[in-house]
Structure formats: structure tokens, C-alpha cells
# Entry
Amino acid sequence: MLRIDQLKLPVGHTEEQLEKKLLRTLNIPKNELKHYQIRKRSLDARKKPDLYYSYSIDVNAAGEERILKHMKGKARQASETRYQAPEHGEKKLRHRPVVVGSGPAGLFCAFLLAGKGYRPLVLERGAPVRERKKDVERFWESGALDPDSNVQFGEGGAGTFSDGKLNTLVKDPAGRGKFVLETFVQHGAPPDILWEQKPHIGTDILIEVVESMRNTITDAGGEFRFHSHVTDIVPEERALVVNGEEKIRTDAAVFAIGHSARDTFYMLYDRGLEMTAKSFAVGVRIEHSQSLIDRNMYGQDGRGTLPAASYKLTEKLENGRGVYTFCMCPGGYVVNASSEEGMLAVNGMSYHGRAGDNANSAVIVTVTPLDYGSDHPLAGIRFQRTLEKRAWEAGQGKIPVQRFEDFCLDRKTMDAGSIRPGMKGQYTFGDVRNIFDREISESIEAGIRAMDRKIRGFSDPDALLSGVESRTSSPVRIVRGKDLRSSFPWLYPCGEGAGYAGGITSAAMDGLKIAEAVMCEYAPWPDN
# Structure
């Protein structure tokens, strides 16, 4: 197989034009081209408004050695790393594996275990994904929060109500990332996630994919129990307590609990599980018109066949703080992502079509134990709660929204200017700046002003800020060793909540790693 990189064609080209360009590049007739497959596609906008797609393509053709000589370094031999699960161990399970949480980490852990005959039990404190969708929409409409079934909790995890971005910077020599994307496609995701540089699914399709994966797991012998909250553990018995009543013993408990399972972190700490505080980031959501972002990124009015444009910005400030954008949602919505009464957190979400009028992104500042005044493992949770309580008070339970000009002048916003809020959940105009301590709010302001040098209009006086963006990642890391076990050898910390991933794909990959660790030690459940 040969790999051709940087094959460029203008935006709007046809499949026939792509094939013709490929044949010309290889200098072969069509009958010698056996097969080709797009490996990666990215948009080259360096000379906007002249925009090109740049392709990396894998090719099987007659006379590949001759082609390599002709292309003089412009083609290379390539091979595909296919994911291979390890051989199973021989130790017999007395009790089947239990996976706590059904976000991407838990879902993929259970998927691999079920496919290899381990018949895992999945415990999820929230609702099945379709019931959960109704609970979330009811909350957005009425403000009535279900603490166990919301944007953070329930089948699919927090990523279900997000943009569904699947890009990751995690190194992947074992091919786990490709396996994750292929599994999504097999369960209903669009095939282009396999080759787009910035793949995304969208909330509407993710719901279908998550449900389909659950069906595959149960067909293979796995079991899901919803509304099943692990409220305690009994370490000496290797047991989980569910809903304060039922006790479930297990030889391997995978805790893929997500970054918002604060009560579970407290319970595990009280039981003596080793954990540490970790850095995370807090800030605001910023909204602009999507047309402004498109014009900046594409260099033209209107985007034609191009997708809604995205961006990623970072700034280093004079005060030493780093400010950066995170979880950018083209054509998306700011959503009320709260999970505790009397506290308010926001996130961003897009549907697959990314057809909303506004673009939104988090603008966040990294915080460390120095900011929350303690290196206690749970101090970051207390810091998050303080900010979320202020946000709830600023909007009296609704998302507080402030124009950027008013944020800078430290005055309440009374109404929107040229940009109308694009939100899922009730909102009100008011004061976002004073949710934060002075240094963080000043850093957000300085970061947004600096970002205007890269995207003209980013610091528009009418840009809308909402808060608080506090759930960027887990404030806790559950310590695990090289064998992926915690200080309790039967308990495996997993995914973003445990502090070992950041985003859907990396969390799913970590779920596979934990499943592999269980498999390497134990024989499948029916063999016992």
C-alpha cells in the first residue's frame, strides 16, 4: 500500500476530479488503480479566500515499486495498524466485572469486555439516553433539575450533550483511536469521521449511536442497570453498594464515573482510596455570530459548501496566566449543564448540522491548587462549587449573560446588542464578571482582547459571555499504577473523571485500556 500526502484540490471539487488528480499524480492509467481510500482530509486556508482541501490517501495499485521511483519521495509505503485485543488470562472470576458509568470510557470498556465474553454489568446512576434526553429538555424548559439525569449524568455521559468532537492528541501506536471511530461508524455515526481532520458527530446522532452500542453489549451478554447509583463501597469485601441498599460483589470494578461525580469522589476519599488534586480550567462561554467566524476563517462572505468554521486560540498573558479556547461549537448553543441544586454550570453543544446562528466556545484560564488555596484532593471540587453557586445567584437559577463591553466596564447587562443569545435553557442578562475573583476575570478580559488580533471582531462589544464554564476536566486524579489499578487492587479508575482522559475519543481509548487490563488477568466469565 502507498500513501500520498498533500494532494490538494479546490473546495467544491467532485469525487471524479479527486480520482483524476490521483491518477495524474501516480502517473498510471485507471485500470492499474486497484483501490484508494481517504485517510485524512483537512482544509488549507492559508491563502484565503483561495481555499483547498488537502488529502492523505492510501492507494493499492499495480507496479507500486515503479510508482515510488517515479514520485521521488512524494509517495511512501504505508501499513495500517489494526487494533488487536490481548489474549485473555487464566485466572477465574468469582464475580463478573462491573463498570460504573456509561460515558465513553465505561461504554467502550463494557463493549470490549462483552465482545470477548466477560458479560459485564454496567451500573449507571442516570437514565437511558432517550429518557435522559427528555429529562434534559424538561430542565432546559422549566428549570426543574433531576440531579441524576441531566447534561452530566446518564447514558452516554457528558459528551452526549456537547458538540461530539472526536479529535484527540493522544498518541495511538496500538490503533485504539481508529477502533473507536470505526465502532462509532458501525453503530450509526457518519463515515466521514474516519478521515476528517476535525471529526464530530453531534448530539442528535450521538444519541442513536449510544443506544445502538448498548444493544450490541447486551446482545453479547452484558447487562445495563439504569437509575443505579453506587453510593458506597466495601473494600474488604470487594463490593459496591447500589442506591444505599443492594450489595454487589465483583473481582474487577471499573470506575468510569465522569468529571462531575462529586458525591462519588467524596465517598471514595472517605473510604481511603488514594487520589490527588489536579489542575483544570474555568471561565466563560463566548458567543459570536457564526458569519463573523466564517468570514475570518474563510476570508469571504458566505461559506457555500464549507462547514461552519471553527477556531482554536491560545494566549500567554503578562501576568503569567494562559488563556485559551476550549470545546468550540460552530453553529451551536450554550447549554445549562448544571447537576446540583443551587449551582449553575454551562457548556457548549452542537447538532450534527451545526446550523445555529451563533458560534460559541469556552474562554478559560488554568487554575491550580494555588488558586483554591489547598492541595487537599477535593479542594478543586470546593472551588468549582463556589463559582457555580455565584453563577446561580447571578442569574437566580438562569444562565447569566453579559455583553463583553459591560464585562470590561464591570456593569450589568440589561439587554443584548447585535447578537442574540443562542441557548438551551433559561437565561437572563446580568453580571458574569463578578462570578470570578479579580485575577481570573481580568485574565479572561485580557485574553479576549488579545484574541482579537487573530480573529477580527472577537472582542466585539456585543459578544456575549455566560458562565460559569467550570466542568472543563476533572479536578481530581484517582491514583493508579502501571497495572492500571488503584490503591484498592480490585478497583480500576478510568476515563476523564479519574483524571486520565480529556474528551470523547481519549476517554473511550482509556476504557479500552482498562478492559485490556482486566482481560489480561482473567478468563472470560462463561469459562468459569
About this structure: Residues 279-469 form one domain. The longest strand covers residues 33-47. The mean pLDDT is 95.
